[in-house]
Amino acid sequence: MIRVVVVDDEPMVCAHLRTILGSSGDIEVVDEAHDGAAGVEAVVRSQPDLVLMDLRMPGVDGLTAIERIGRLADPPVVVVLTTFDADQYVLRALRAGAAGFLVKSTPPADLIGLVRVAADGHTVLSPAAARRLVAASADSQPAREHARKLVGTLTEREAEVLSCLGEGLSNAQIASRLYLSEATVKGYVSRMLVKLGCANRTQAGLLAHDAGIVRREGGA
Fold first, then answer.
1. 39 or 59: which carries more pLDDT confidence?
2. Which of 11, 87, 139, 188 falls between 20 and 30 A from 18, CA-CA?
3. How far is the C-alpha of 191 from the C-alpha of 23, rounded, in Å?
């Protein structure tokens, strides 16, 4: 079972998500909270695999809660689930440690599938958030320079794997492209996260965009 905590200031939203996810057979909402501070407490209390986090809440907001959860000893995957996906919120949430950014209008069946994908360690983004991420990443020269400096510490193969993460590829897809085993790719990813100081694959992929090493569609 994938254990989920829902953090949203609307109890009806929490109840709706509990019903949707509970219908899957392999996902269980084990706790819920209605503001960011209570959300962090719920994570500590229930030890979930994944958190669905709203952003706009009274008191402690979702972005602050994501940062606090990321500082826990063994943090769960956090996916933002909100009604809006403006550029600044997509980037801020991912930089804070979120592994994905979805909108509440996501169809129930798609949401169930995306929760499974995120719990398995992959990035999940709404189509609008993905487009905006590519357009808005590396929004300043210092960010680009910092990313390029970090990428410069990687081996050539590590940089290739990082570029693939920037495309959102799974370990299996990376292995197929680079003619490696999945176990080898997993090892590369784990070492890179430590080297780059990234909390998860999503942050590493964002850094790849900042450094300008992600293959463009149709490119080499």
1. 39
2. 87
3. 37
